[in-house]
Design a protein that fits this description.
Elements (H helix, E strand, L loop, with lengths): L1 E7 L9 E8 L4 E10 L4 H21 L9 H20 L9 E2 L1 E7 L3 E7 L3 E6 L4 E4 L6 H7 L5 H6 L19 E6 L5 E5 L1 H4 L4 H10 L3 H14 L6 E7 L1
Antiparallel strand pairs: 1-11, 2-3, 3-4, 3-5, 5-6, 6-9, 7-8, 7-10, 10-11
Length: about 250
């Protein structure tokens, strides 16, 4: 398993409110990966993102390496990790007016060396499963966003949603309310598969077909992330952008 991640503030933003982590856990033959995109103003956006990322990964790591329960339900661990992350951000948001209303997206996963993947998502940061050799690309997560609701209701087409003025309004976030409900997924990576996590600063610029084309041209995670970043920059990069690529 080969893994690489990067984050960048983009061209127009003065601060990067995205955070990510890739944590190897050799004792459990897995990695914990997480990507968060903060919101809530210039100061609190980054703070919310970092709080969400750190509390989630710390919780998941503690549960996976526990000496008491050596065979945890990983999906349940991710669900509870999202709850812990939500609780921490929500409590901090009530401390001062500066932090009031802050929140973050979170897409996180436990990826085993065997290829088994457990994944959780809150918000509109995404996870894709791509196999360039088989010409396959699939968005695993579903955006918790206003335009996604419009698409489900038949009000907008998928293409119209990409450029809609309300495309950045999300309907579910870490820290927004006292209780959060993450979406949970399980999948298996086969030889040649790519798991790609990204913030909306990437997915707003690149289509599914372009993700597939880049994966075909770039056989290494670092090379792929650099190429996707180059494309986003060529199209304006008016938001923070973050990528994590895992290749089997």
């Amino acid at each position: 398993m080969r893994t690489f991640g990067l984050t960048d503030r983009g061209i127009e933003r003065t601060e990067n409110q995205d955070t990510f982590s890739v944590l190897q856990v050799p004792s459990r033959k897995c990695s914990i990966i997480a990507l968060c995109d903060g919101m809530g103003g210039q100061n609190s956006g980054y703070f919310a993102s970092e709080l969400a990322r750190r509390s989630f990964t710390d919780y998941v790591l503690a549960k996976l390496t526990s000496r008491i329960n050596k065979n945890p339900d990983v999906s349940e661990v991710l669900r509870l990790g999202c709850e812990e992350s939500n609780s921490v951000v929500f409590q901090y948001s009530s401390f001062t007016e500066e932090y009031n209303g802050m929140g973050s997206t979170l897409v996180g996963a436990v990826v085993y060396d065997s290829g088994k993947v457990f994944l959780a998502n809150v918000g509109d940061s995404r996870a894709y499963l791509i196999n360039a050799g088989k010409n396959e690309v699939r968005q695993i997560t579903k955006d918790h966003s206003l335009v996604e609701l419009y698409v489900d209701a038949g009000i907008l087409t998928r293409e119209q949603a990409r450029t809609h003025k309300n495309k950045n309004i999300i309907t579910r976030a870490i820290g927004e309310k006292q209780i959060v409900e993450p979406d949970l997924f399980e999948l298996s990576l086969r030889k040649g598969d790519l798991l790609l996590l990204c913030s909306d600063g990437v997915s707003n610029y690149i289509t599914d077909g372009e993700f597939l084309d880049c994966a075909e041209k770039c056989p290494e995670p670092e090379e792929l992330c650099a190429e996707l970043k180059r494309i986003v920059y060529s199209r304006g990069a008016n938001d923070n952008l973050t990528l994590i690529a895992v290749m089997k």
